[in-house]
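dude i think i finally got it to work??
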Amino acid sequence: MTEIREAKKTDAEAMIALNERLSRETSFMLLEPEEVSSSIESQTEILQRVSGSEDECLLVAEQNDRLIGFIVANRRPFSRVRHCFSIVVGVEELCWGEGLGERLMFEIESWAISKGAKRLELTVLANNSRAIKLYQSCGFSTEGTRRGSMRVRSKLEDELYMAKIL
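look at this
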């Protein structure tokens, strides 16, 4: 059984390991494997800062005492856009197609609504059809294309800018 819960500062080492795995197994994440470098101390500080925050939330998916996914939402800081939250999600490839992404999206949306969110935003590589399908099934619409915004394996790739009005 997979549990979705708020990340705790004791998850620091497991979060580092999860981010390293995600960056190695797919090119859909932002960071290259060698860029995922965080000390346990700095990761603990991040998790401590996020814990109980009104402006950001980090949820993790845990299965058999191992983190297999995460979702984070960050509120935009300026008063005219404080109703907007940016989302980043990552799920281990082994768990794709099991509904975990949808569960994470539902949980973070519920949290964001409780904090006054009126809009959720994210970007996704245009060639990541699985994730696009997930986001569309969760009510997100494509608002634009960021052409050549990411360099993946020496090739410029487009990102889609997607959002959901709550």
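The beta strands are 3-6, 56-63, 66-75, 84-91, 119-125, 141-152, 155-165.
im so relieved honestly
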